[in-house]
Amino acid sequence: MDLLVRLYDLPPLNEMNNLLKDREVTIRGARSYEKTPVVSWVRTHFGSSWGDECSVSFRNQPVSCHIALKKGEILGFAC
Q: Residue 25 and residue 40: Cα distance in Å, rounded?
């Protein structure tokens, strides 16, 4: 299975923002005070290795983890 993301095939950003807004989804950088719940969510859904990697991303300034949220619930992450 190919797990690479073909960034050059993404739709225009305005189109994507409208789709996310219609679905009440927000994508933003994680905030330092969110480390515990974000890392816990990552460990639960992706395992301890990914949780460790995510934890390291919170040491960067700015934090290099992004999260997708819907009504305050985490849907996904990237770091």
A: 20
How many other C-beta atoms lie within 10 A of the C-beta of residue 78?
A: 13
Distance from chain centroid for Cα 16:
15
Average pLDDT over residues 36-56: 97
Question: Hey, what are 43's tokens?
Answer: 């460990």
- Token pair 């993301």: residue: 5
- pLDDT of 41 higher than 80: yes
d(CA 76, CA 20): 13
Helices 35-46 and 48-57, axial angle in degrees (round to 10): 150
Q: Are 30 and 66 in contact (CB under 8 A)?
A: yes
